[in-house]
Design a protein that fits this description.
The protein is mainly alpha-helical and 255 residues long. It is 79% helix and 0% strand.
């Protein structure tokens, strides 16, 4: 493959990184401005440190993905490898902060105002819903990232696709805000979990379409990764609101 052809094959990863950045900005900027306004007016106290830590980690991750894909597009592999070491720090930070925010949210934001059966039942439903909504991030982000790291030396084609998949599953919160808070994205008549999963799958369409058009087939990393995500999506659809899942999820938090 000549230099021009090799370079053209990398633009899709720059495009996907930009798409993720735009999605995150569109999803979080309106709610962030609202939060700043409430804090400035004294209506709300500053969020805990874990929220700021997660926002910083997630933002740096998206910028790193954009920088890394751009470096490969302009053929700077040496700098790409050096900068890639930052992902070994950022990935654990993102996972830790996601779990930390979830624990804080469950214990302080969703906590029932009293111990009435109705309040406790609603609390349990909220916990089960939250875990299903964010479960795709908890489950697949670390696994796709570790897979990408393990194959980075011998299989660069899988590596770059797996980094796209790892970032794709982090988009659930931003998509939720675009659907629920700002209404930019219609829910299409779907329930909360199905609407988010529909759009998170829609995000990967440009990368999948590029692979199909360029290679005539889906790369095995996309095939395996998306198959696993689809299995989760289908499972979450049937678990959503089920009494078994409500009780199981609540027990995970000791409720």
């Amino acid at each position: 493959m000549n230099r021009a052809a090799a370079q053209s094959s990398e633009y899709i990863y720059v495009f996907m990184a930009l798409l993720f950045v735009i999605t995150a900005v569109a999803g979080f900027i309106p709610t962030s401005f609202g939060l700043i306004s409430r804090v400035a007016s004294g209506q709300q106290s500053l969020p805990p440190f874990i929220v700021h830590f997660h926002a910083a980690s997630f933002s740096l991750w998206l910028l790193l993905l954009l920088a890394q894909s751009t470096l490969m597009y302009i053929k700077r592999p040496a700098l790409h490898k050096k900068l890639g070491l930052a992902s070994l720090v950022l990935a654990p930070c993102i996972l830790f902060s996601m779990i930390g925010i979830e624990i804080y949210y469950v214990e302080h934001v969703l906590a029932p105002s009293d111990s009435s059966p109705e309040q406790i039942a609603e609390y349990k439903r909220n916990i089960s819903d939250i875990l299903l909504i964010h479960g795709v991030s908890y489950l697949f982000f670390p696994n796709f990232f570790l897979w990408a790291i393990l194959v980075r030396q011998k299989d660069s084609e899988s590596h770059k696709r797996l980094m796209i998949l790892a970032t794709q599953v982090l988009m659930i919160p931003a998509l939720g805000r675009l659907i629920g808070f700002s209404g930019v994205l219609p829910d299409l008549g779907l329930n909360t979990i199905d609407a988010r999963h529909f759009y998170v799958l829609l995000l990967i369409v440009p990368a999948v379409a590029y692979d199909m058009l360029k290679n005539g087939m889906l790369h095995r990393s996309y095939l395996i990764g998306l198959s696993l995500i689809v299995i989760w999506v289908v499972s979450a659809h049937y678990l959503w609101g089920s009494s078994w899942w409500v009780e199981t999820a609540s027990k995970l938090f000791g409720v």
